[in-house]
Design goal:
Elements lengths: L1 E4 L6 E4 L23 E4 L2 E4 L1 H9 L14 H11 L27 H21 L20 H11 L1 H8 L4 H18 L19 H12 L15 H13 L10 H8 L2 H17 L7 E6 L4 E6 L2 E11 L8 E10 L3 E2 L2 H14 L3 H4 L2 E4 L27 E4 L10 E4 L8 E2 L13 E3 L3 E3 L2 H9 L7 H10 L3 E14 L3 E3 L5 E3 L6 H9 L4
Parallel strand pairs: 2-3, 5-16, 7-14, 13-15
Antiparallel strand pairs: 1-2, 3-4, 5-6, 6-7, 7-15, 8-12, 8-16, 9-11, 10-11, 12-13, 17-18
Length: about 525
C-alpha cells in the first residue's frame, strides 16, 4: 500500500491512508521498517524521524497511540486534548490538522503513519505547552531566558506508562498563576460571547458630579465587565457610586486611584474584550518560559506591576513596591540567585550614564563631583589614580566615549542608597535602595536606568536574611553607622526572577491588568496571533 523512495539525505515516504476500511490484520501498529528513514511524507505533512527513532527502536517499533483497528485510549485522549488546546491559549490547528475528523477505523497499512504523526504532534504540543510557542528572546535582546527543551524519549515513555492526561498535567506549568490565568481565559471568552463591553468615545476627563453622554458610555462599559449596582435613573450623571467603581477599576489596572476618569483610565477601559483575551494568552506564554521550579523560597519581581514579593513554601511573606527601568533603559528579564547584600555601597557610574547625565553638569561646574560625593579616576584600569576634576577640559570630552571612572562614595546622596542586593550577572543588574524615595508614591514607576530600586530596603534585607538569622536590625544599624562598605553573604543563595506580567491574579482572587510599559505584549502577541 506504500509507494516510497529512499534518499541519501532525506528519505520520503508517501503513506496512503485507507481510513474507514476494516482491519485485515490483528497486529498493532509497528513502525519498525521506517526507523532508518530521516523523514516521511504523511498525508502532505513531513514527519521528522530523528527525534522519534530512538524511542521506537527501544521498543522494537511498537506504537503507543494505536491498536489493530485505530486509535487506542492514548490516541483518543490526545485527540481530545488537542481539540481543547484553546483552553491553554494554543491553536488546535497547529498539531493534528492533517488527521481527518470522524475516523473510527484505520486500515493496517495506514496505522504506522498515524502512529508516527501522533508522536510528532505530541512532541510539538508538549514543547509549546511546557516551553512556549515563542522563544523567550524572540522579541528583544534584554529577555535572557533559555528556552526549556523536551526530551522525546522521556515524554513519549511517560505517555506509555502514565497515560496522556497525567503527562499533559506534568507538562503544563504548575505555577498557580498559570492555572488562574487559564480560568480567566475561559471567563473572558464567555464575556466575548455575551458581546463584551461598549467602547467609550474619546474626550476630556470625566469627573464626579459631571453630566455627560460619555458618562453613560462608561457606565455601560463597566456593567459589561460585570460590575453590579451601578444602574441609575440618570445614567449620564457621574454619581458617587460610579466614582467608587472607577476607583476599583483603577486599582485593578495599576492606575492612580482618584475616581476620576482621565486619559489613562479611559484608555484602559477602551481595551476590548478581545484585547484582554490576547493579553491573558500572552501572559500564559510567559509562564511557560520560566523554570518549572522557581525555588521553595524565592524573590519574584514583576516589572509591569512595579512590585516584588518573597514567596516561601507557596506563601507570600513579603511584598513591596519597586522602581524599574525607563522605557529606553528596560530592566531585563532573567533568573539568577541573590548571593549577598552590600551595605554603605559605593556606586561606579557606568560610562554611558556618565557621558549622558554627568558630563553636562561637569561642563557647567567641575565642583559637581565633590559636592555630590563623587571621586574621579584617570581611567577604568584597576589601580588608576584619582584626579582633580578641575584639571580636565570637559568641553572636549566625547559623551559616547567617556574615558574616566567616576565612583560615588557611601553616604546619603549615594545613588544606591544604603544597601544593594547582588546576584552578579553580565547585565550589571541588581536590587538597591535609592535616595529618591518620593518616587515610590507614583503609580507608574519606570524611572531607573535598568536596576531595580526597592521600597524600604532595610526591611527587605531583614526578610531576605531571616531564615539564616544572621542579620538582625541592630546588626544592620551597626554596619550603617560604621560608614564602611560591608558585604554580608547569604548562607544560602536565594533564587530571584525578574519577570514581566501585565495580567496578575492577586491573593484574594482579584485579577489586575497593568500597562505594557515596555511594549513586550505587542511584540510577543504579534507572533502568537499571526501578525508577523
Amino acid at each position: 500500500m506504500w509507494d516510497f523512495t529512499r534518499r541519501s539525505s532525506v528519505a520520503l515516504c508517501a503513506l496512503m491512508l485507507l481510513f474507514g476500511m476494516d482491519a485485515q490484520s490483528s497486529r498493532a501498529a509497528s513502525v519498525s521498517e521506517f526507523l532508518d528513514y530521516q523523514a516521511l511524507d504523511w498525508n502532505g505533512t513531513v514527519i521528522n524521524m530523528e527525534p522519534l527513532a530512538s524511542f521506537y527502536q527501544a521498543r522494537s517499533g511498537e506504537g503507543i497511540w494505536t491498536n489493530e483497528t485505530g486509535l487506542n485510549e492514548n490516541g483518543k485522549a490526545f485527540l481530545k486534548t488537542i481539540r481543547n488546546a484553546a483552553d491553554d491559549g494554543l491553536e488546535t490547528k497547529e498539531y493534528l490538522s492533517a488527521f481527518p475528523t470522524g475516523i473510527v477505523k484505520i486500515s493496517p497499512a495506514a496505522l504506522p503513519g498515524v502512529e508516527l504523526y501522533f508522536s510528532q504532534g505530541f512532541l510539538k504540543f508538549a514543547r509549546d505547552l511546557h516551553a512556549g510557542r515563542t522563544t523567550p528572546a524572540v522579541s528583544e535582546p534584554d529577555i535572557i531566558i533559555k528556552r526549556k527543551t523536551i526530551d522525546p524519549q522521556v515524554w513519549l515513555s511517560r505517555v506509555d506508562s502514565e497515560g496522556v492526561d497525567a503527562t499533559i498535567r506534568a507538562l503544563r506549568p504548575s505555577h498557580p498563576q498559570y492555572a488562574q490565568l487559564r480560568q480567566m481565559l475561559t471567563g473572558y471568552k464567555n464575556l466575548a460571547r455575551l458581546g463584551g463591553w461598549p467602547a467609550i468615545t474619546s474626550g476630556p476627563t470625566l469627573k464626579p458630579d459631571m453630566t455627560d453622554p460619555r458618562v453613560g458610555e462608561m457606565r455601560a462599559n463597566l456593567q459589561g465587565r460585570g460590575y453590579q449596582g451601578i444602574t441609575s435613573d440618570n445614567p449620564n450623571y457621574f454619581d458617587e457610586g460610579l466614582a467608587e467603581v472607577v476607583e476599583h477599576f483603577q486599582k485593578r489596572h495599576g492606575l492612580d486611584v482618584d475616581g476620576v476618569a482621565g486619559p489613562a483610565t479611559i484608555k484602559a477601559m477602551s481595551h476590548s474584550v478581545d484585547y484582554r483575551i490576547k493579553q491573558i494568552i500572552t501572559n500564559m506564554e510567559r509562564w511557560r518560559w520560566l523554570p518549572s521550579n522557581l525555588g521553595n523560597r524565592h524573590v519574584f519581581v514583576n516589572q509591569a506591576a512595579f512590585n516584588l514579593h518573597i514567596r516561601n513554601n507557596g506563601k507570600i511573606t513579603d511584598q513591596r513596591k519597586v522602581i524599574v527601568g525607563k522605557e529606553f533603559h528596560k530592566t531585563p528579564m532573567f533568573s539568577d540567585r541573590i548571593r549577598y547584600a552590600e551595605f554603605n555601597p559605593t556606586w561606579t557610574v557606568p560610562s554611558s550614564i556618565a557621558g549622558r547625565s554627568i558630563l553636562p553638569k561637569l561642563k557647567q561646574n567641575p565642583g559637581y563631583l565633590d559636592a555630590n560625593g563623587f571621586q574621579l579616576y584617570t581611567s577604568w584600569k584597576s589601580g588608576a589614580p584619582a584626579m582633580n576634576p578641575f584639571s580636565v577640559n570637559w568641553s572636549s570630552v566625547n559623551p559616547k566615549r567617556f574615558p574616566y571612572r567616576i565612583v560615588q562614595r557611601p553616604g546619603e546622596k549615594n545613588a544606591l542608597g544604603q544597601v544593594k542586593f547582588m546576584f552578579p550577572n553580565k547585565h550589571a543588574i541588581y536590587l538597591h535602595d535609592t535616595p529618591q524615595r518620593g518616587l515610590f508614591s507614583k503609580a507608574r514607576r519606570a524611572f531607573s536606568s535598568g536596576c531595580i530600586r526597592v521600597f524600604k530596603p532595610l526591611e527587605f534585607a531583614q526578610k531576605l536574611f531571616n531564615p539564616s538569622g544572621n542579620l538582625p536590625r541592630n546588626k544592620i544599624n551597626s554596619i550603617l553607622n560604621s560608614r564602611k562598605t560591608t558585604r554580608v553573604n547569604l548562607k544560602r543563595a536565594v533564587p530571584v526572577h525578574l519577570t514581566y506580567f501585565t495580567v496578575w491574579v492577586n491573593e484574594d482572587g482579584r485579577p489586575s491588568f497593568y500597562e505594557d510599559i515596555y511594549d513586550r505584549d505587542r511584540l510577543v502577541g504579534n507572533i502568537l496571533f499571526g501578525n508577523v
